[in-house]
Amino acid sequence: MLSAAEASALVDRAFEVRCAAEDVATAIAEGAHGGELRELVDSLVNLAKEAERLR
After folding, report:
1. Which alpha helices (H) appear in 1-55, and where do they start and end?
2. Domain-by-domain residue ranges, the chain?
3. What does the pLDDT look like over 19-38, one tens digit per residue?
4. Predicted TM-score (pTM) of this structure
């Protein structure tokens, strides 16, 4: 069971992952080049890894 603080932190991390995914989708739609996409995807992966860890 999660404490209220842990649950709140988990929701915050999930929000960060969603925002990062939206950034990738926007960049693709706007024709971003490989380097920019690589940075955005790296950030998304790192945020997802952090989100899956319970603190």
Report:
1. 4-29, 34-52
2. 24-55
3. 999 999 999 999 999 999 99
4. 0.86
